[in-house]
Specification:
This protein is of the alpha/beta class. It is built from twelve helices and twelve strands. 43% of the residues lie in helices and 17% in strands. Helix 5 packs parallel to helix 12, helix 6 packs across helix 7 and helix 10 packs across helix 11.
């Protein structure tokens, strides 16, 4: 039988409300009472009921974490960081997989059934209407990795994907490439659209010729392989900007299968700087997306909204940077 709050109160010689306050964060209780209650709880093996506490405080401490693209290993890195960041705030993630889900209202209904305190939409490929659906349902929401908006309706934390695409073009020029190709993620993803737009605009400004442009059907290794095989039908390009590291790894292996050497025959620059990008088999030069900074900031925002739900929407953008490894030809001194 589970030990009850009443038994702890009797053992400590205090009221049940004193026990409850001892295990309620921020509640007022004297040091003497706290010491007696904690000792009685240890002696009896008592653990406070989170469900009972949520009923008393009207807070579940659950944060809905909505994501898709689970086939991409980078999500494991993202989920690890979110889990630890929320647990450090005494919160818990409730993960929702939207890989095959297109109806925002179903997601809202699901998470409201669990009475989540807030929601983080952690995806650059889900349309903004998912986050807006939670706002309309009066659930505190932050869109992490969301699309930049100068006048936001919801809280957005992420990067300027157009600027990052331009950074990729500048990097290829610095490495002495003239004819380049673009290989993006799904064309329906706003992140892919913006990276392509920034890359194309800046390439034209600095004199790079984009000889091929193609979108993969998913942020996946096999999609990168397949798309690269199609790009290789027109081999006028000298280097490829891939809008995702995993797509880039598939593309690199397709190039190797075709007998090409990297970076001697063709150069590659990816996007994200996922852990696998540093593996010796790839040693991928890439654009680093500051994933940990985005995650910590989105957690900070959703926590602040728990106490101030009327907080005005804001955009927090973090800069990207180039991580030089071995997939572009050296810069001549």
């Amino acid at each position: 039988m589970a030990v009850t709050l009443k038994e702890v109160a009797e053992r400590a010689g205090v009221s049940r409300s004193a026990v409850s306050r001892t295990f309620t964060q921020g509640a007022s209780v004297s040091a003497k009472t706290r010491k007696k209650v904690e000792k009685a709880a240890r002696d009896l093996g008592y653990s406070p009921s989170l469900i009972a506490r949520s009923l008393a405080t009207n807070r579940t401490k659950l944060i809905g974490l909505i994501a898709n693209n689970f086939q991409n290993p980078v999500f494991l890195e993202v989920f690890d960081l979110y889990t630890r960041a929320l647990q450090e705030r005494n919160l818990r993630p409730l993960l929702v997989n939207l890989t095959d889900q297109t109806d925002p209202s179903a997601s809202v209904q699901l998470l409201k059934q669990y009475s989540v305190d807030g929601v983080i939409v952690a995806s650059s490929t889900l349309p903004p209407l998912f986050a807006h659906a939670f706002k309309e349902a009066q659930v505190p929401v932050v869109h992490a990795f969301g699309r930049f908006a100068s006048t936001p309706d919801i809280h957005i934390v992420g990067i300027d994907n157009e600027h990052c695409g331009a950074l990729a073009a500048e990097t290829l020029q610095k490495h002495r490439y003239k004819r380049v190709a673009f290989l993006g993620g799904p064309q329906s993803a706003t992140s892919a659209q913006d990276r392509a737009a920034g890359f194309t605009r800046r390439a034209k400004e600095i004199g790079l010729e984009i000889v091929s442009s193609l979108y993969a059907d998913a942020y996946a290794y096999n999609s990168g392989q397949q798309a690269m095989r199609e790009l290789l039908n027109d081999r006028r390009f000298e280097a490829v900007f891939c809008g995702d590291d995993l797509i880039c790894m598939g593309a690199m292996d397709a190039a190797r299968d075709a007998g090409l050497s990297i970076p001697q025959d063709v150069g590659f620059i990816g996007f994200n700087d996922m852990n696998m990008a540093a593996w010796q088999a790839y040693s991928l030069t890439t654009i680093r997306q500051p994933t940990s900074e985005i995650i910590l900031s989105s957690v900070d925002l959703v926590v602040s909204m728990l106490d101030t739900p009327e907080r005005a929407p804001e955009v927090r953008l973090f800069p990207c940077s180039v991580v030089e490894r071995g997939t572009l030809k050296p810069i001549e001194g």
